[in-house]
Write a structure and sequence with these properties.
single chain, 446 residues, mainly alpha, globular, UPF0324_pro, transmembrane helix, membrane, Membrane protein, transmembrane
């Protein structure tokens, strides 16, 4: 396997390329199956675990109804990921064996995460995957062949492109200019606060500060990965940024719903506040759902997923530009060789896949009448959401398995302090914007 950075590899050997191929391939395959009347086959591969309580009767009944579901899901992704492995340069045999085990763990986690009691405790599948991965990863020595399948960046890229298919531009437009304005204020202010605290107060590397700032201001783990790659931050910097995101995201799952209830917030503004103050989509969904009102979930989605998450591409471009033109020029003896074309080479191409997936679904829905469009949303977009969920489950399991508690203290207290200062800015700012400046907008969301 090559040790070259992704942007130095030929296009066909990059994770971004294969994440786009695989995710868009799934979008086209699921859409084609719908129009060919083969949605039932898609439903078998897009395995959904039902909510259960007390006993596993609902789960076993679902598996009896679709006995080939787990195997079909495994084969679809195993074949796709193994093909990518062969071209990228990973050891295919080790990867396939490792992914099979990762898949088995994800099935157990998905079943546990569908338990109503754990849902009530806000321990749904993504967060549970993190906790299980961290517990096992720090308790036992993981074999090398299993570690070869812990491809956090690869899985999250596949998930993000699939997310595009579940967010048509029509939904993005429904967010309105006020939602975009609030997301802009929050993202810019929080990023600046964390970056300046990290670099000016605590003297951290600018690339480290940018990675921390992205994780705290945009879309958490995926932003830290994308922006870290765009500015060539050290791998340890990205790991610490991800750890900060996880730490604060878990804390906010419990703190924000309690605070919203204590303050007597209406569901709309409360969901928007969670959307501005949470650091991870999965954790934010859990926090918004804990309020028990669908309006909170809707306003959270508009703010976090549509509003803030969309900044990852823009932020990657800005940070790549700063890295090439400012930070590296101060360090590299041959700085004159660093051209502006490097900005494009470092731009995370999987973001383009996100927009293409969104456009594909938007065009399809626009071409259908209301009744068929509703069926398409249920029988095609629905399974794509399920497949996206599995990709994110493998992402969070991989993060958990590769997070070492002892490494969190490697850089001391400074990264934590910089991130905490960002939280101190983000939370009250989001509250003020959601309950005062744009309150009438969020209250109107039904």
């Amino acid at each position: 396997m090559s040790n070259l950075p992704q942007n130095a590899l030929p296009w066909h050997r990059r994770e971004d390329t294969w994440a786009i191929f695989i995710a868009l391939g799934l979008v086209l395959a699921v859409s084609g199956a719908f129009f060919l009347g083969a949605s039932r086959a898609v439903g078998a591969a897009a395995l959904a675990i039902p909510t259960w309580s007390g006993s596993l009767g609902a789960v076993t009944a679902a598996l009896r109804a679709q006995p080939a579901g787990p195997l079909a899901l495994l084969l679809v992704f195993l074949v796709a990921f193994s093909a990518a492995s062969a071209v990228i340069g990973w050891d295919v045999v080790k990867y396939a064996a490792g992914f099979a085990l990762l898949f088995a763990v994800s099935l157990v986690v998905a079943v546990l995460g569908s338990n109503q009691t754990l849902k009530d405790w806000q321990l749904e599948t993504p967060l549970l995957a993190l906790l299980v991965g961290m517990a096992l990863g720090n308790a036992v020595a993981l074999p090398a062949w299993f570690q070869s399948a812990l491809r956090t960046e690869f899985y999250v890229k596949v998930g993000i492109v699939l997310m595009g298919a579940t967010l048509p531009f029509t939904i993005i437009l429904q967010a309105g200019p006020l939602a975009v304005a609030q997301a802009t204020v929050v993202a810019v202010t929080t990023f600046t606060a964390i970056y300046l605290a990290a670099t000016r107060l605590f003297g951290l590397d600018p690339r480290f500060g940018a990675t921390l700032g992205a994780g705290g201001s945009i879309c958490g783990v995926s932003a830290a990965i994308a922006i870290g790659g765009a500015c060539r931050a050290e791998k340890s910097h990205v790991s610490v940024a991800i750890s900060m995101v996880i730490l604060w995201a878990v804390a906010m799952i419990f703190a924000l719903p309690v605070a919203a209830r204590h303050l007597g917030l209406a569901a709309g503004p409360a969901g928007a506040w969670i959307g501005t103050s949470e650091f991870a989509d999965a954790a934010g969904f859990a926090a918004a759902a804990a309020l028990g009102d669908e309006r909170a979930v809707k306003t959270f989605t508009l703010m976090k997923v549509v509003g803030r998450d969309m900044f990852v591409g823009l932020w990657a471009l800005v940070v790549a530009f700063l890295s090439v033109t400012v930070w590296e020029r101060k360090r590299a003896a041959d700085a004159e060789r660093v051209g502006l074309g490097e900005v494009w080479r470092r731009f995370p191409k999987f973001i383009l896949g996100f927009f293409v997936a969104s456009l594909v679904v938007t065009v399809i829905l626009a071409s259908l009448d209301g009744r068929i469009g509703t069926r398409f949303s249920k029988e095609a977009v629905g399974p794509l959401k399920t497949l996206r969920g599995w990709a994110f489950t493998w992402t969070f399991l991989s993060i958990g398995f590769t997070t070492r508690f002892r490494e969190l203290t490697r850089f001391g207290w400074k990264p934590f302090a910089a991130f905490a200062l960002g939280v101190a800015v983000n939370v009250p700012l989001g509250y003020w914007l959601s309950t005062r400046v744009f309150a009438s907008y969020w209250l109107a969301v039904k």
